[in-house]
Amino acid sequence: MALALALAACVPQGELGLRHTPSAREIPLPSPDFAVYVAAAEVAIAEANQAIDRPLEEKIIADRAPFELVPERGRCRRGADGRHAKAALLLHDLGGTPYDMRDIARAFLKDCYLIRAVLLPGHGTVPGDLLEVDYRLWVEATSSAVASFAGGAERLVLVGFGLGATLALHHALTAPPRSDPVLGGLVLLAPALGTDMPLAWLRAPGVYSQLMPEGRWARLLPDYDPVRFESLPHNAQLQQMRLVAEVDARDAVLDLPVFVAISADDVEVDPGAARDWFCRQLSGPRRLIWHTTAPARSTDCRFIAERASAAPPDILDLSHVALPIAPDNPRYGAKGGYLDCSHYWEENSPNWLLCVDVTKTTANSDLRYGEITAANRQRHIVRRLTYNPDFAAMVGAMLAFLADPD
Which of 80, 182, 258, 329 is the most buried (most CB within 10 A)? Predict the structure, then answer.
């Protein structure tokens, strides 16, 4: 936390830096030789940050980079041709990196999945690389990653979070009906769907602000999170919305096993739109885990399972960023030490200092953990919850569903 305070003290509100300009280091597209792709991505990440005099430790580079996890040969079945029985492609969220998906990857690996996680173009290097990215390059990266499994697995599951979930759905709607490997299902965590996405703490660009360099940014923050961009340009938001619009325009019923999990209190995507899509556009096996502070509401379709998201006394509800993160995550978990208070920094609010004060506890303050909704922040000082207390149950339900969707 001392690092966060030091960085914050050095970066005035709204100030642009070298990291807010494109780095000219391109993240490569995934290739069949996945190790070569991972190495090339690591070079791009390292060079982009070295060039702005913010060199990264090797561990941070590895955490931002794509990764592959291979199940044990003796324990996990392979076909006579050497193919893995099942594989999973993991797709991270807007502004994030494959680190978002590491906890889920470990759970899938234990269940004998071959795992590959990609780094989407514009991510992992510097925030400025999102100024010029086009969503069609994200689509191409997803398709290339799927193609990398050809000849290596019998069945493939796409597992996406936020933007990654929308990309997974886009691929399922546009891919040829016959593929290698066979597309065996989707896992969509907080999918961005519907054209009225809240993205609650992003600034809408005004006419005057768009004429200034700062006006290209939806938020400008110190970027002290080592594996996620905290600064985000309007173009990144726009490209996600264009992808969502393209998915929404495809009014097709999807006949494929689909597992969805989302928080009813999510401020970065529209939970209601995801729920409506789930009930309306699916004809195959499906299940939705709806994390809510008000369980036992009447459900609009029988495939929805509601789970309480509050964990008194200090957890109010489940945030967007917490959904794919396990409580024992070394960075974002219950004992990880990372405090997400960026929502107060951008407001230039004195509550920021209260939020980052590690001496504050529920015993001596009004501090709580949860989503950064207006209602929560009116009642409490809120540290954004960075892990999912229900992670084990959610992943267990996910793997059970994929093993036996019917």
Answer: 258
Q: Which residue has the tokens 């594996």?
A: 227
Q: Which tokens is 384 given?
A: 């954004």
Who's near 64: CB < 8 A, 6+ residues apart?
45, 56, 97, 98, 99, 119, 124, 226, 227
Q: Is 404 exposed, middle or buried (0-12, 13-18, 19+ CB in 10 A)?
A: exposed
What phi and psi, each to the nearest 5 degrees, are found at residue 253? Answer: -85, 130
Secondary structure of the chain as H, E, C letters: CHHHHHHHHHCCCCCCCHHHCCCCCCCCCCCCCHHHHHHHHHHHHHHHHHHCCCCCCHHHHHHHCCEEECCCCCCCCECCCCCECCEEEEECCCCCCHHHHHHHHHHHHHCCCEEEECCCCCCCCCHHHHCCCCHHHHHHHHHHHHHCCCCCECEEEEEEECHHHHHHHHHHHHCCCCCCCEEEEEEEECCCCCCCCCCCCCCCCCHHHHCCHHHHEEECCCCCCCCCCCCEEHHHHHHHHHHHHHHHHCCCCECCCEEEEEECCCCCCCHHHHHHHHHHCECCCEEEEEEECCCCCCCCCCCEEEEECCECCCECCCCCCCCCCCCCCCCCCCCCCCCECHHHHHHCCCHHHHHHCCCCCCCCCCEEEECCCHHHHHHCEEEECCCCCCHHHHHHHHHHHHHCCC
pLDDT of amino acid 10: 37
What's the pLDDT band for 6 if we cut at 50, 70, 90? Answer: very low
Q: Which residue has the tokens 């597209």?
A: 29
Predicted pLDDT at 13:
44
Return d(Cα 406, Cα 404) in angstroms, integer: 6
Least confident piece of the model among 83-87, 206-210, 369-373: 206-210
Give the C-alpha distances (Å, rounded to integers) separating 375 from 52, 278, 301.
39, 27, 28
Does residue 267 have a pLDDT over 90?
yes
Q: Are 121 and 141 in contact (CB under 8 A)?
A: yes
pLDDT range class, residue 119, cuts 50, 70, 90: very high
pTM of the model: 0.92
In the Cβ-directed half-sphere of 17, how many Cα atoms lie within 13 Å? 19
- Cis omega (within 30 of 0) on the bond before 330? no
